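for the writeup, i need someone to sanity check this before i put it in the appendix. the sequnce is what the collaborator sent (i think, or maybe the updated version? ugh). structure was predicted straight from it, no edits. if anything looks off just tell me and ill rerun, i have time this weekend
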Amino acid sequence: MNRAVEPVQGTKRFVEDDRKSSILLKGTGYGVRVTFPEAASEEDLFDQIRRFPLETSHLSGGLDAVFDFQGRSLSKEFLLRVLSEFVWPNGIRILAWLSYDLETRALLRAAGFSIEEPGSGHAESGREPPGSLVLTQSLRCGQRVEYDGDVIILGHMNEGAEIYASGNVFVRGRLKGVVHAGVDGGEHCVSAGSFEAAQVRLGDKICSSLGDDPRWKGKSVLFSVEDGSLIARELKV
């Protein structure tokens, strides 16, 4: 699965000598997207946040923004500091607070914040519409993603990571964790750039010995359900 990612204009990184722990700003049609890194400590993040009014004065003045925390786990204290030290003083209007960490999503939802992408048409009932969640980084051990729709990972899925999706799951790199596509039923598929997992689940069809099969180990593979059976095919890329 090759997916071209076009560069976004207006991108600026802070703490450029440590790109993995720097906050990323991206200009968008609605204003700006602020992506918070998972690796940086909370104090490092606030050190960067304190410099925003000086280094990016265009952020102030009522600009619309989306905050993307990726898989970062947020505490109530951290959230309050973001609001009191960055959002409120600069008059920023937050369109959405995004995260795929389950506890963080529950916290943001309980606080009354929108947790959907702008323009997603999210229903008032609180149920997420089917769509695609695109993760540009790898999933580490212990990280778990649940999503109502397709999940696309442009990096790797490491041992101990989990994905549960109502739609399809596409992992461009190595797939070593646990993947369950079609958790609500229906015909869906899982693909991996390099399949190294012990188990793949599609709906109620479970295959637990694929990781030991030399035909698929380390290969680019597509798994699907046909006529009630789980089928594996090597992808020629």
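Helices lie at 42-55, 76-90, 102-110. Confidence is low (pLDDT under 50) at residues 1-19, 53-61, 121-129.
thx in advance!!
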